[in-house]
Amino acid sequence: MPSFAAAVFASAxxxxxxxxxxxxxxxxxxLVPAVSAAATANNSIPQLASxxxxxxxxxxxxxxxxxxxxxxxxxxxxxxxxxxSQIGMGGMGVALVPIHVPIVDTKDPILKxxxxxxxxxxxxxxxxxxxxxxxxxxxxxxxxGVPGQLLYLEPVYFLQTPAMVWMIWQRDHIVxxxxxADKHSENVKPSWFGDSIGHYENGDTLVVDTIGLSxxxxxxxxxxxPHTEQEHVVERFTISxxxxxxxxxxxxxxxxxxxxxxxxxxxxxxxxxPMGETICADDGGADIFHFNLFPIPQADKPDF
Length: 304
Prior knowledge:
The strands form 2 sheets. The protein has a 9-stranded mixed beta sheet with strand order 1-11-10-9-8-7-6-5-4, with no helix packed on it. Strands 2-3 form a two-stranded antiparallel sheet. The protein has one domain (4-271). Strand 9 (232-239) and strand 10 form a beta hairpin. The chain is an alpha+beta fold. It is 12% helix and 21% strand. The protein is globular and about 55 Å long. The longest helix is centred in the middle third of the chain and has 15 residues, at 113-127.
């Protein structure tokens, strides 16, 4: 099979810097945590936000072991098809020759029959050569959904206010909004990032509860694991004592797709740089290697 890493990087990470460092600083001047002096004094709110730093993901896949006593771990690849995660700790993995695309373990009993069948079909597209690369949201300019968006490699920046937390990814400036509230909206319309509410715990953790997630072209990971609109996600973002790393422990429940809850982990390292401006589809999503790639999003009508 072709080099998964090389082709994904050609498609996913082909971006251009559109502004200088100074311009980036100006653009992100608003990314300063809005916390009161009292809140800072009692350490009730973790400092996730700054105009001067963001958080860079360490893993391309949900591959870390979950805490003892947690739910079923993340969906894994089929052991019959060797696979090494393409990205680890922000760099290329070491076992990269030969490279194989991820063929998913569809025999996992956590999967409902329809989900396993859909994943078998995408496996087959890769095995028979119909597609040279699997669908990965960030490589084809799609939003990642929840929790799939946490696997985006470019830095994420937080903006914290008393009523809202924003998560803003440098790539395409994708924005996710988290209301600091204890109740979901009464009428939730399914969307890429759903209806997220959150609160702080222990001075170091942001807890986020999300429902109302659209299922079309949306997967919970980079292994093409689907979900339904019944999906319910709880994320616990915890900052390390030294403020240099961030960990999210994620629980996914979806009785329409899984026979029980899933648990997975993503981690980030502090990235001491202000937000830049990069775009995904500056080449129009051209399939330059003729891999029969999944098409990029296209607007049917202007949004203004």
